[in-house]
Automatic annotation (TrEMBL):
Organism domain of life: Eukaryota
Protein name from the UniProt record: Uncharacterized protein
């Protein structure tokens, strides 16, 4: 479960990103993938959800929009379904009460699928 402070941090980051550009791509033209919510909804409807198919059938693809997400340790999985890391930063490094190694957080992007011709 994400702590309230971390959740607020990511909401703040999302807001900042929406007002600027990330890797020369305007966030306004992208769709944010809320994976836990999407997966939870899918599991409620069908216990045999195929997560890879979820990324192929997103509304962002239908709208020809890129999809972005934030992850820490699952980045290798997201790379297998077409995402690439466009930014990364460490969380916890400057916190004097954090006594573990910093957590590397990655912002990942997946371009929309090209329509078949």
């Amino acid at each position: 479960m994400i702590s309230h402070n971390v959740s607020n941090y990511f909401c703040s980051l999302q807001s900042e990103m929406a007002q600027s550009t990330v890797a020369q791509i305007e966030v306004k033209t992208m769709s944010y993938a809320d994976i836990p919510t999407a997966v939870r909804s899918s599991f409620e409807a069908d216990r045999n959800v195929d997560l890879v198919r979820y990324f192929e059938d997103t509304p962002a693809n239908e709208q020809h929009r890129a999809t972005w997400l934030i992850t820490s340790d699952a980045y290798r999985f997201y790379e297998t379904v077409g995402f690439s890391t466009i930014a990364e930063f460490e969380v916890g490094d400057g916190n004097p009460t954090w006594n573990k190694p910093p957590i590397v957080v990655r912002v990942m992007l997946k371009e929309p699928m090209r329509p078949e011709r």
